[in-house]
Specification:
There is one protein chain. The chain is α/β, with parallel strands linked by helices. It has two domains: 5-88, Rossmann fold; 102-155, no CATH class. It has seven helices and seven strands, in the order βαβαβαβαβααββα. A hairpin with a 5-residue loop joins strand 6 (125-128) and strand 7.
């Protein structure tokens, strides 16, 4: 499944961030109720991911999955496995905060938004096309890359 698109219930905030980090189009807000989730899934042809079996019983939900695990990392592996997404991972191409796409941006365009240390020590930057959040390869990047390498090994991805 190349174009898996998801909408998640309130119980899956950490999974939402991990799905976005791995490049999957993921709608999540902690204030969405079941009718809103169902409407989004219908209108945008999204898969409902939930920890609440009740929503999956609604006849309007065409595609959905009850997430078995309670740990975000295991949940991510479960979703990648269940939907056959190993070859669809596009790491760090979506904004973890809002789900927008991320593109490289020239340092000069965002210099006035950077803290002095960031401006001094980093030269490559990326920005969300929707919320305009700026990303760079700081210490958080190293942690995310370690997580990604670990996930690839556990999933058997080259």
């Amino acid at each position: 499944m190349d174009s898996a698109r998801f909408v998640l219930d309130v119980h899956l905030g950490k999974l939402a961030r991990l799905l976005r980090m791995t490049g999957f189009d993921t709608i999540y807000r902690n204030d969405l109720d079941d009718p809103e989730i169902i409407q989004i899934a219908e209108e945008e042809k999204r898969i409902v991911l939930t920890r609440d079996r009740g929503i999956l019983k609604n006849k309007r939900v065409e595609r959905g999955h009850f997430v078995e695990s309670t740990h975000a990392k295991d949940q991510l592996k479960e979703i990648i496995d269940v939907f056959g997404l190993k070859n669809s991972i596009r790491f760090l191409t979506r904004c973890i905060a809002c789900n927008g796409t991320i593109e490289e941006v020239n340092k000069e365009e965002i210099e006035n938004e950077l803290k002095p240390g960031t401006n001094q020590y980093f030269n490559e930057f990326f920005r969300c096309c929707d919320c305009e959040k700026v990303y760079w390869e700081g210490s958080h990047f190293n942690r995310m890359m370690s997580f990604y390498e670990e996930m690839k090994e556990e999933l058997g991805i080259n």
